[in-house]
Amino acid sequence: MRLGGNAKYLLDITDAKMIGPAVDWAKERNLSVIMIGTGSNIVWTDAGFDGLVLVNKILGIDVQKPDENNAYYTIGSGENWDSVVKRTVDDGYGGLAELSAVPGTTGGTPVQNVGAYGRDVSETLSSLEAYDNNLRQLVTLKASDCQFGYRSSRFNGKDKGRFYITSVTFHVTKDAPKPPFYASLAEYFEQNGISDITTPAIRDAVMAIRRIKLPDPSVVNNNGSFFKNPIVKKEKMAQLIKDYPKIAHWENGAEFKLSAAWLIEHAGYADAHDPATGMATWAAQPLVLVNEHAKTTADLMAFKQKIMDAVNQKFGVVLTQEPETIGAHPVVEK
Ligand SMILES: Cc1cc2nc3c(=O)[nH]c(=O)nc-3n(C[C@H](O)[C@H](O)[C@H](O)COP(=O)(O)OP(=O)(O)OC[C@H]3O[C@@H](n4cnc5c(N)ncnc54)[C@H](O)[C@@H]3O)c2cc1C
């Protein structure tokens, strides 16, 4: 969003071995420490971060191929995520193509279990290495140790702040992609007459759809989807369908997931531009909030609150923020 205050201290981490001494240095001075990637999923408070920010720049790619069909890619967590996806696709492997063009580092992806076009990173993640702040050493965690859920994991849940991820290993295969494909992908293939659905075709489709739907964060200030898709119980879903027969929703186990974009649009915030805060919703995707000329994170939060209030008043559904707010003092929200 290009908003918020400064960090008191900041250090580029280019090697996992740098983390221990940096953490010790900060602890001696009673400073908070945080590791970040490119900050694409962070809202910084106006007060800034009154501690040490470790910026992850750990690089390196190692590939193990136990047989013709399977490969294990161990990726330095500071590697650009989309370059990693491209590399696996170029090498002929599927499993990550749906996650093309998600901004940020590879180490950022397990934190909220990055997902797009029907696939979550946890489906391909095999293990990761991290610096454990409790044990003060590097540890290896299997995917089953990471408590992955919808946009969640132990890294943004109960163990938030405990681990700094230094490398991630993905298990990818040459298996042909299998239908059914995510609705917008299927629609793209049909509209473009593509019947041979290969992994490169999936990557091309995702890139094309994302270019139309989402603003490029190097040009337009944004955090991607600003709200999670809300999950509601069966009774609430029945009521919503009765009142709004066209409401966009999916089954989610015994519960239902609502399209936050649909709710925002139908609460009157499609392509909305708010002169009071300098914030807007992106014309092609109202789930994306855009900083047009906001000056402070308080402006962003005020706009966010207007959208939340409108959705809650109309549908009785409370939206929750997807990007994390980080800073010395919590932003005061209504
Ligand atoms: C235009 C746009 C589109 C997006 N599309 C999607 C999408 O389709 N799906 C999706 O899931 N997300 C999406 N996002 C969100 C974002 O790209 C992802 O969450 C991404 O993984 C964040 O990576 P990052 O390196 O920028 O992490 P940051 O934003 O720097 O950090 C995010 C969180 O992870 C923590 N963290 C980062 N690196 C590490 C590490 N090495 N060890 C421990 N903790 C760490 C940080 O402390 C922070 O809590 C989008 C964002 C934008 C701007």
Task: Please provide the count of β strands.
Answer: 19
Give average pLDDT, whole number: 96
Q: Please identify the structural class as seen in this structure.
A: alpha+beta
The sequence of SSEs as H and E is: EHEEEEEHEEEEEHHEEHEEHEEEHE
What would you say the CATH architecture of the largest domain is? 2-Layer Sandwich
Please state the overall shape, judged from the principal axes of the Cα atoms: globular
Query: Within the largest sheet, what's the order of strands?
Result: 5-6-11-9-10
Supply the number of helical segments. 7
Number of domains: 3
What is the level 1 CATH name of the largest domain?
Alpha Beta
CATH topology of the largest domain: Uridine Diphospho-n-acetylenolpyruvylglucosamine Reductase, domain 3
Bound molecules: flavin-adenine dinucleotide
Q: Into which percent range does the helicity of residues fall?
A: 10-25%
> What profile does the largest beta sheet have?
5 strands, antiparallel
Can you give a write-up of this model?
With 334 residues, the protein is an alpha+beta fold. It has three domains: 7-56, Uridine Diphospho-n-acetylenolpyruvylglucosamine Reductase, domain 2 (2-Layer Sandwich); 61-173, Uridine Diphospho-n-acetylenolpyruvylglucosamine Reductase, domain 3 (2-Layer Sandwich), CATH 3.30.465.10; 222-326, Uridine Diphospho-n-acetylenolpyruvylglucosamine Reductase, domain 1 (Alpha-Beta Complex), CATH 3.90.78.10. The chain has seven helices and 19 strands. The protein has a five-stranded antiparallel beta sheet, with no helix packed on it. It has a four-stranded antiparallel beta sheet with strand order 12-18-17-16. Helix 3 (183-191) packs across helix 4 (199-213) and helix 6 (260-269) packs across helix 7. The longest helix has 19 residues, at 297-315. The structure holds flavin-adenine dinucleotide (FAD). Flavin-adenine dinucleotide (FAD) binds next to strand 2, strand 7, strand 11 and strand 12.
